[in-house]
Structures are given as C-alpha cells and as structure tokens.
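The following block was generated as part of the benchmark described in Methods. Ligand: 3-methyl-2-oxobutanoic acid.
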Amino acid sequence: MRTITSIKNAKNSEKLVMITAYDALFASLFDEKVDMILVGDSLNNSFNGQKDTNSADLKMMIYHTKAVLRGAKNTLVVTDMPFASYTDEKTALKNASKVYQQTDTHALKIEGGKERAHIVKALSDNSMAVVGHIGLMPQFARSWGGFKVRGKDKEDAQRLIDDARAIEDAGAFCIVLEGTKEEAAKAVTEAVKIPVIGIGAGRYTDGQVLVWSDMLGFFEQFKPKFVKRYLNGAELVKKAVEEYASDVKSGKFPDDEFIY
Ligand code: KIV
C-alpha cells in the first residue's frame, strides 16, 4: 500500500494512477490496482444525479468514505472536502477533523489555489495530509458560469504555476490539476517538487485520475473529451437487465439449475 511519502517520492520516477470510488463494492474491485482512490464529490453528479458537486455535504462524504475504506483495504484513500466546508481556517479545521476522526481516510482534497493556501497550511500544520486541486475546479463552476478549460494563455498558465507553488509551500503532498491545456499543465508539473495528477491536463503530468463511472462507460449523459472509456458499462448492464427481464417474462428463468 502506498504511503504519503512514497507518493511524494514517485515524482520523476513513475506515473501515478488515481481513480474515484464511492462505495465498498467498486472500491474492492479497484483495491491494489491503483496508487490512490479518491472519494470525489463527483459522487454528487454520477451517484446522486445532481447537476454539479455543490450540494454534496460532509455527511455524504463521511458515509461514502467509510464505505470505500471497507472495500479498499490496501489502497491510499483521499476524501474530497465538500463545497463550503472550508470557507475559513476555523471551519476547515472543524470539518476536516470530523472527516479524519469519523473515517480512517488517509488524506483530504481541497479545491483552490493561492487564495486557499492558508487552508492547506492550517490542515497540514494540524497533521492532516492534503491534496490540492487547481485548474478547472468543479466547486467553482457555478460562479464561473460553467466548466472552463484553464491555461489558454501565458497569464493563466503563470497563475496556475503560482497556485501550485503556493499549495506546495503550504504543505500539500500532491496536486490534482484539472481541465488544463497540455503545455500549461507541463509547466505546472515542472514548477513543483510534489506530484501533479492530471485530469484532462494532457500527457506530461506525474499521473492521471479519472472518474470511475466515466472511464468504465456507466455515465452516459456526457463524455468529456479527455475520458477514455475502458468498458461499455452502461451498454453491458442494460443488455444484461433486458435479458433477465425477458427470461423472467418468458419463464426461462429460473430453470432447474437455479432451484433448491
Ligand atoms: O470529485 C472528483 O471526482 C474529482 C476529480 C474530478 C478529480 O475531484
């Protein structure tokens, strides 16, 4: 099982793999196959059917983290701090401590760059391992008027570099960089000593993270350009359920094999 130190040391020597999970069943399937599992607040979209992540709350994150930890016993687990749970240092410490105490999660992820560095510092100074999240930040999407790709010009690329450095200096052990032009993502990755895990940030980051329901093809409504589908999950499931329904209606199931 990876440790925080081994994740930090992976920089420039191996690519890191992260995937999201929200429940014990899928977490047990991903266990030991990836370096880190993220209990992302994306669960509010793909699991809870909401249009964005903003209504995910602390109670949900704690519930799903406990489930994931029961399934993934040998993988480093990171929990997303939900929207509005880290508005200032005092609130962040109170809520982050709650997640740390009520679950056995190994680390917490918070969205925000320079402007949130003091929050990262408050948590890491109080013995909590922190993953930063910069670039396109879903918790900001509503106020930004949508999901906007970052790093399109030199100024924004520099802003992202400054964000990454501020988060690193504040004590984060790793950074998620989302929805960023490849060249800017490369510059951000090279600007810090901690690993940068990309999602929609091209080839040159220190690792990749994908949302499980996207990469396994279960989430059909929308496929971001950066998602590679490794399975046609939705198609397979729908076909299987149709076959089951048809077998029951026709009396084909259960037959001799399935009767006590
Ligand atoms: O919530 C989430 O799943 C995330 C990933 C998009 C990195 O933050």
